[in-house]
Each structure stands twice: as structure tokens, then as C-alpha cells.
Amino acid sequence: MSYQKLTIVGNLGRDPEMRYLANGQAVTSFSIASNRSYTASSGEKVKETTWFRISAWGKQAEICNQYLKQGKQVLVEGRLTADKETGNPRIWTAQDGTPRASFEVNADRVVFLGGREDGGGSGGAGYQDGGMPEFSGEADDDIPF
User: What is the pTM of this model?
Assistant: First the structure.
């Protein structure tokens, strides 16, 4: 048996995009930038950004589409989805000709970080202590909206 779980905290690079599959299931896609700063051995300050493409499904997709906006901070737990042909991240070429890689994640759990003013929600519905709404794809029927 194998198991993987990826936890990412970052900011949305743009507003989410939702669509419905032929079977009626909602899927929302959004990108998260996760930043890391460190000092290289040369003493130079380095800022590194890694982009993740997130897919949320079902009611979780609808809620993410409704409440997430560009720049908002979010925590996502999920599993990495590899390219079916190579087993690696999806590789593609940008418009300027540079090679790029996309790390794709299927979200199992999404937590909106920040206060009620920052989180994009209205009122107090769905917020836990500390002002953070949390939505898990595993309990679609228990979402408090």
C-alpha cells in the first residue's frame, strides 16, 4: 500500500475558474504560489516561488469558486497528480519559449486563511475558531452553507 499527502500554503495567482463535467460534477481550478526565502552560501538573499495548479471537486469546488479570489492565502491538502505519460510534473513551453513545469494537485481539503475580512466569506457561516473556514471534499454533505 502506498500513500501520499501534500500540504501547501500559498496565495492565489488569479481568480479560480469553475466548470461542470458532462456528468454534472463541478471542478474548480486555481493556481497557488508558494514562496520560500533563504540565504545562499554566497550570502545572497534568494526568493523562490513554486506554482501549483489545484483542482477541487464537487461542493468544495463550488465553495472555492465562490469565496476564493486572487491574492488570498489558502492551505490545500491533497495528492500530487503526475503526467499520465511520464509520471513527472506536466512539462510545457511558455509563449516566450522557456520550458515550464506544472505541479498539479487534487485537493482533499481547502482551508481559507486570514480573517473574515480577508477570507472572502460573508458573515460568520462556515468559520472555525480563529476565523478560518475549512472545507473538505470528503464530507460534502456536511458543509455548513
Answer: 0.72
How far, in Å, CA of 123 to CA of 120, rounded? 10
**AA identity, residue 101:** A
Alpha helices in 36-125 (DSSP H): 58-67, 116-119
CA gap 96, 18 in Å, rounded: 27
Residue 42 grid cell: 554566497
- Using the structure block, give the residue that is written with the C-alpha cell 473538505: 136
CATH topology of domain 6-142: OB fold (Dihydrolipoamide Acetyltransferase, E2P) (2.40.50)
Q: pLDDT tens digits for 38-62?
A: 999 999 999 998 899 999 999 999 9
13 CA to centre of own chain: 10
Phi-psi region of 85 (alpha: psi -120 to 50; beta: other; left: phi over 0): alpha
Q: All 3 cell numbers of residue 103?
A: 505541479
At residue 115, the pLDDT reads: 53
Task: For the chain, list residues with pLDDT below 70.
Answer: 115-145
Residue 49 makes CB contacts below 8 A (sequence gap 6+) with 33, 34, 35, 36
- Quote the radius of gyration of the chain (alpha carbons, Å): 17
